[in-house]
Amino acid sequence: xxxxxxMAPADAAFLHMDRPSNLMVVNAVMWFDSPPDxxxxxxxxxxxxxxxxxxxxxxxxxxxxAVGPFGAPHWEDDDTxxxxxxxxxxxxxxxxxxxxxxELIADLMATPIDASKPLWHSYFIDGYGAGSAVLGSDDxxxxxxxxxxxxxxxxxxxxxxxxxxxxxxxxxxxxxxxLHHAMRDRASGFCVYNDPAVAIAWLLTQGxxxxxxxxxxxxxxxxxxxxxxxxxxxxxxSLHESGYTLFPGTGFPTEIGGGxxxxxxVNVALPAGTADGGWLRAFHAxxxxxxxxxxxxIMLSQxxxxxxxxxxxxxxxxxxxxxxxxxxxxxxxxxxxxxxRWIAVGGGGYEVVQVVPRSWTxxxxxxxxxxxxxxxxxxxxxxxxxxxxxKQPPPVLLGDGTAPSYSHWEPGEGDVDSPLDLAVAATRRxxxxxxxxxxxxxx
Length: 443
Ligand SMILES: [Zn+2]
Ligand SMILES: [Zn+2]
Description:
Layout: E1 4-6, H1 9-17, E2 28-32, H2 38-50, E3 58-62, E4 73-77, E5 87-91, H3 98-109, E6 122-128, E7 131-136, H4 146-166, E8 171-174, H5 195-205, E9 211-215, H6 222-227, E10 234-241, E11 265-270, H7 276-294, E12 298-302, H8 320-338, E13 342-345, H9 356-368, H10 380-389, H11 419-431
Parallel strand pairs: 5-6, 8-13, 9-10, 9-12, 10-11, 12-13
Antiparallel strand pairs: 1-4, 2-7, 3-4, 6-7
The structure holds zinc ion (2 copies).
């Protein structure tokens, strides 16, 4: 009998929304400056996709048995699978410009995919300008110069780590970095190469023996955690919206590191809706005591600002002022604990007019002299730039007009009726004893 696997709920929902009047097709286009060796590209598809990931050889099956709103769809091996049914070779009509390519894409997107076969197709397209193009579907879309741009980002974080390690700079920031979901062997969650993991691995080769990684992005820093899960030299702490409600679905307090390194992975899975006060209460109940106990020689922190209340992808409710308090707290801890040796990287952030520029301006300010007054007016030149580039009214002030405060975590288990306190207590119970700390004590 063919291999079967239950379909993830998101995939099932996607499948059920797909109908002739509403085709659910994910597309990506990659182009080459000159015609590639198609036989080689075909082999790459075969080895890196079809052989490595069973999904490329599986078709969707819906048994029709009603379980929940979507029935019980699953994936099943397609015994008649042939890569030739999925790779197609086409030539663009002359003159092979943008318009001809767009017409071809529009035509393909309007054609339903045969659901009795695996749900993917790639088109090798000749005659696009002086080169060629590939059209395909994937979760992390391919894009032009994918390797070059991802490698540049990684190199910048590596340079930041080198500067701090060698003492040419006390702090260094790479706003383009923080691609914390990328795994050793695959891209994930918009991240191609994991720049924090590469920088930390390099620091280890330089003989640094205790490195702390603190991740305040709304999503779990799963790729960095995975890279050093069994390495006691690297303490990873991630505060994020719970994996029950947000990608990547991991980062629970029970993930504590493996083997010799138990206790070296720390996760605070915050309830959706957590705002400044709750977030800062959780941060201060977990991060400073662990860093003081671990005594890192150098600290790398990831400052994804998708925790903001306006961010479209996540469900946390921070303000720019709460995020600035977090940037400042990490900076102060670096000075207190590791002689100021601090590398800061960016990360997620999908509200690119109101949130990302203001939050990361504050991060740069913190790293270069001190947070700016939140009542500072946004420079008129930048406001004009925003007005010409987006339809949104630009922000007027640097801050959101809030003055975040929080109640400090006192000895004990917190408030048992508060989901936030339950989350914090779960983290402390999971890892405090492994660091010689008392989870219900002073720290
Ligand atoms: Zn994120
Ligand atoms: Zn400083």
